[in-house]
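Hi support team,

I submitted a single chain yesterday and got back a structure, but I'm not sure I'm reading the C-alpha cell output correctly. Could someone confirm the output below corresponds to the sequence I sent? I've pasted both exactly as they appear in my results page.

Thanks,
R.
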Amino acid sequence: MVEAKPKRKWKWKSILTYTAFVGPALLFFLVIQVIPFLMGVYYSFTSWNGVSAAAEWVGFENYKRIFTNDETFYNSFIFTTKFMFTAVIISNLIGFGFALLLNAALKTRNILRTVFFLPNVIGGLLLGFIWQFIFVKGFASVGEMTNLSFFKLPWLGDETTAFWGIVIVFAWQISGYMMVIYVAALQGVDNSLLEAARIDGASNLTLVTKIIIPLILPAFTICFFLTISMAFKIFDLNLSLTGGGPFNSTQSVAINIYQEAFNNNRYGLGTAKSIIFFVVVAIFTTIQVWSTKKREVEA
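Hi R., thanks for writing in. Yes, this is the structure output for that exact sequence:
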C-alpha cells in the first residue's frame, strides 16, 4: 500500500511554485509602482526641491497653496477636463465607426485595419512634431492654393484652434487602437441575430443601437476607460504640439506638474499636484467603469 505524501510538504511545494511565478512580477510592481507612489505621498508633505538631501516637512501647506493660490493649476485642470470629454467622445465614435466599416465583407479590410492602427505605433513626441509641421506649414500652403479659410486658421496660435488641434491629433492617434477592440467585440456577435432582425424589418440604425451596442457593452467599458485615462494623462503630444501655449491656454495637468517639479524645482509642490491628479483620475475612471458595468448587467 502506497503511503500518502504529507500535506505540509505539498503545501510548501505549492507556496514555492506560486512564489516562483508571482514573486518576480510582484517584486517589480512593488519597486516600480508602489514604493515610488508612497515616496511621492511623503514628498507631497515636504518642501523638497528635488536636489538637496534634506526634505523639510510642511504638512498640508502644499495642498493649501494649490487650492487657494494656484490659478495656473486650476486652469490646466479645466483645460484637461474639457479635452478629456471631447477627445473621449470623438475617439470612440471614430473607432466604433471604423470597426463597423471593417467588420463588413470588404476585400481591403485587412489593409485598412493596418492603416488605421498605424498612427498608434508612432510615439507621441514624434507625432506631435509631424502634426505641428502639418498645421503650421502644410495647412498654410493648402490655404494659399485653395483660398479656403479653414486652412488659414492659426491652428496652434489661438486658444480655441489649438485646443481642437490637440483633439484632432489625439483622436487620429488613438482611434485605431479603439477600433481593434471594437472589431474584436463585433466578431463575437452572433450573425443569426442580425439576420433575424433584418428579416423582421429592422433598419441598420436599429441593428446598431438595439442589438450590436448592447451586446458589445464590455468593449465600450474598456475603450472608455482607456481613452479617459489616456486623455487625462496627455503629456508628450501636448508638449510637442503647443508646449502648453499660447499663454498656457492649452497646458495639461501633466505639463503643469512637470514644470512645477523640474523647471521650478518645487518637487514637493509638484508631487502634491500629482497626488490630487491621481485622486481625480481614479474617481472619474471608477465612476465610468461602475456606470458602464451597471448597464452591462441591465443589458
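A quick pointer for reading it: The domain at 75-247 is CATH 1.10.3720.10 (MetI-like fold). Let us know if anything else looks off.

Best,
Support desk
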